[in-house]
């Protein structure tokens, strides 16, 4: 938990004056910006911070950072720190994208800065050997168990799948207990927040500005809880309930973190809502229209019996669910998903016919979980320790979120009895009155972070504002109504009222 010496450091009030160019040293932290070697419109830095924030004079680590300088430096408000989620994402690679998404009016008045979280190694825009923070590794040493391959399926379906997944999780936990590098004990969200606070002070900002997407909302909520009097403005988009993330509410604590944050419910709601919308608009706009839900149920049932045959190769039941979820991360991909559902349905209805091109497009979009995920998520959250935890969590989540509840539950299966605890982790209290109100934003049909998480954070932060967005996909940034709300909030301090809608229908 929050160490006393860190608490004392956090209590210090700093009123620094904004400085151009190189930033002054604060608390021993210095930021020296230089032109990035790859994206030359950006500035780069390797920033040394304490490995252990309870020992500020102890060993340090270097964190990769990138900055998109404000185009109107004379009227610059400050630095807007960004985080694109994960956990395990390389934030320094998000800076340029964030600038494009936030728009020219915002980037005129703010430096946009991305600081890599701990344990994440980059490969681009490197200004030091090793490119910043040493990535977390769990290495097999002398006496280590025999290697166990990581299962290819997103989650287990058969008895053999289950044995393989449990064996791999045991292997990973053993390696991390015996052969992890020191960063694994200092990877918590709160450690990253303390890094951000040191850098905020070093660059001379009087207060903290932040945009966080997905797990980035946990970063934002943690900063707001630790430093409520230092918030200039903060936007969190695609929000995770911080209580469900850290400990769980009531009896929900008996389930894995990735089950209790209700991501499975978000995915199920997004899919079933989209299938209903497909039927409503008809086959001229959505090819799966005409009992679209029944078509989905049919291909899921067939995939459970045997893999679907496609030009991209066999699609197993777990891969079907994982691929569908990936497609739902962007509203623009829903038409492709509906094409794939129709093709698969026709193929299963006419034996010998193979589903065609749409499945190839969707399989190409499937992504893997970042290897830094367990170091953060398992190390800072409470999870059950019994061997049946993942199976039990999947069954519980599957009651309200068929297929997707089990998928999300197994994302965190290694967290059961995770052997390494992040010493600096923060688990509440979360109910805080901040010096400036947070702007909490969420799509109403988000497949990863359902709007229930945004509503929960809104209740915890009593002076916050909630902006619901009638849209599909993960994250609302990029929608014109949302962009205008961000501009008014970041530039004028004005909070939106009402809600936003998507710029285009789901099925044009």
UniProtKB/TrEMBL annotation:
Source taxon at top rank: Bacteria
Domain (Peptidase S33 tripeptidyl aminopeptidase-like C-terminal): residue spans on this chain: 402-497
Protein name: Alpha/beta hydrolase fold
Domain AB hydrolase-1, chain residue ranges per copy: 80-239
Pfam families, per the entry: Abhydrolase_1, Abhydrolase_4
Family, as annotated: Belongs to the peptidase S33 family.
Signal peptide: 1-25
Single GO molecular function: hydrolase activity
Keywords: Hydrolase, Signal
Upper taxonomic lineage: Bacteria, Bacillati, Actinomycetota, Actinomycetes, Pseudonocardiales
